[in-house]
Amino acid sequence: MTPNAAVDAIERDPLIPSGPGDAFSAYGVIGLPFRSGHVLALLRRAASLGPSYTSIWHRDPVDRWTFYSTVAPDCSCARYFGARVHRNVLTPINLEWIAP
Q1: Do the beta carbons of residue 47 and residue 16 sit within 8 Å?
Q2: Tens digit of each residue's pLDDT (9 = 90 or more) over 5-60
Q3: 67 near 77, Cβ under 8 Å?
Q4: pTM strictly above 0.85
Q5: Which of 6, 16, 44, 84 has the most CB atoms less than 10 A away?
Q6: Residue 47's beta-bridge partner residues?
Q7: Are 56 and 39 in contact, with CB atoms under 8 Å apart?
Q8: Residue whose C-alpha is closest to residue 16's, from 41, 45, 43
Q9: CA 47, 91, 96: angle at the middle one, nearest 5?
């Protein structure tokens, strides 16, 4: 199965585990470091606590985190980072697979 096919399957039918607490079904690129000291991450999630969302995380070389997300910070990954979040940006994010 190609990564694109796997993502298509997750998008069609996200399996969110049942039980108490927050539950998620997700895919992404977690922690892509660059020589410059910047780090990027991408997460696409279906969640029990609200709508599905896309989030891009950026850590700059001095350890400041910025979260770009399609949902409010209290419903996204940013809520787990607390005081380490320097900035939250609510914005549309479009993902496009150009190859399998």
Answers
A1: yes
A2: 888 888 787 777 777 877 777 788 888 999 999 999 999 887 666 788 999 999 99
A3: yes
A4: no
A5: 44
A6: 24, 50
A7: no
A8: 45
A9: 75
Query: Is a pLDDT exceeding 80 seen at residue 91?
Result: yes
* R_g of the chain, CA atoms, integer Å: 14
Which amino acid type is present at position 58? Answer: H
DSSP 63-98: S-EEEEESS-GGGSGGGGTGGGEEEEEE--------
SS3 of 19-62: CCCCCEEEEEEEEEECCCCCEEEEEEEEECCEEEEEEEEEECCC
Residue type at 88 in one-letter notation: N
CB within 8 A of 66, min separation 6: which ones? 57, 58, 59, 60, 85, 86, 87, 88, 89
